[in-house]
């Protein structure tokens, strides 16, 4: 099959790799029908995630069709259309029993495109399939559904829930990329008083306004002063960091009010300074986190009911074989206006897997 392979910092290639095969009775093999690129993939490409070694197939978000299931898989069968979650869950360890699947110690967690081959391929092996894929209703388009693999549960759980967004809150989202925009959408579920979006790209600020931000500000044009003006100098109740660089994290800690919450969502590849000389007296709560995807079934029901706007997040579409071009467009978002890219491969009518008769 073809797959997008990490070859070291700054280098990727769409190339031939061996087809995946069932390695454990809990595995499923999924034909990838739609896939996307995450900001985390860009961090990997920059060398920010050293656990990802050359030769790894990247990607952790997909919608596809089950073509083979191991003997222990009970919830899906060949032919089922499914969402592949970015998080894999063994279901047995302490953290899985607490629904903290991102911290799974039984062989799951964030493994796809990280420590096992991922979804930016024609086929993907999904471990622990019963808890790691979700059957999809026909009413949800594949390009929309793929947004539920990562960005919506991440923004909701790591941003909105960790930040404890409440009615009438002033919420600031720093970074209006896909995660930040999904945070704007899901924060609105809790009726905050106002949402302020901060970014450097005017196209993303326009998208934030169309998706429900009450105010937007360019990151280079005084966002801290704007937040102070809107809150009579108090600061925001909740500030979400959705970029992953030291400067934006430190900006977030300056914009939060005494007793407020800073919810870090961004993937950081460099140390950020924690200014305790200013923060120790302010009763500020700072949270971090990897998504658990425990909210995915709920978000899936919301999307099926038309309650989760998503169409505006997909700005560019490509064929699966155009993966390298899609990376270039997504990686130059400030120039291209890309928010989220969706890639869809051809629909195969025959499948051949190792040691498996052709379907």
TrEMBL record:
<feature type="domain" description="Enoyl reductase (ER)">
    <location>
        <begin position="10"/>
        <end position="343"/>
    </location>
</feature>
<keyword id="KW-0479">Metal-binding</keyword>
<dbReference type="InterPro" id="IPR036291">
    <property type="entry name" value="NAD(P)-bd_dom_sf"/>
</dbReference>
<dbReference type="Pfam" id="PF08240">
    <property type="entry name" value="ADH_N"/>
</dbReference>
<dbReference type="InterPro" id="IPR002328">
    <property type="entry name" value="ADH_Zn_CS"/>
</dbReference>
<dbReference type="InterPro" id="IPR011032">
    <property type="entry name" value="GroES-like_sf"/>
</dbReference>
<dbReference type="InterPro" id="IPR013154">
    <property type="entry name" value="ADH-like_N"/>
</dbReference>
<dbReference type="GO" id="GO:0016491">
    <property type="term" value="F:oxidoreductase activity"/>
</dbReference>
<dbReference type="GO" id="GO:0008270">
    <property type="term" value="F:zinc ion binding"/>
</dbReference>
<protein>
    <submittedName>
        <fullName>Alcohol dehydrogenase</fullName>
    </submittedName>
</protein>
<dbReference type="Pfam" id="PF00107">
    <property type="entry name" value="ADH_zinc_N"/>
</dbReference>
<keyword id="KW-0560">Oxidoreductase</keyword>
<dbReference type="InterPro" id="IPR020843">
    <property type="entry name" value="ER"/>
</dbReference>
<comment type="similarity">
    <text>Belongs to the zinc-containing alcohol dehydrogenase family.</text>
</comment>
<keyword id="KW-0862">Zinc</keyword>
<dbReference type="InterPro" id="IPR013149">
    <property type="entry name" value="ADH-like_C"/>
</dbReference>
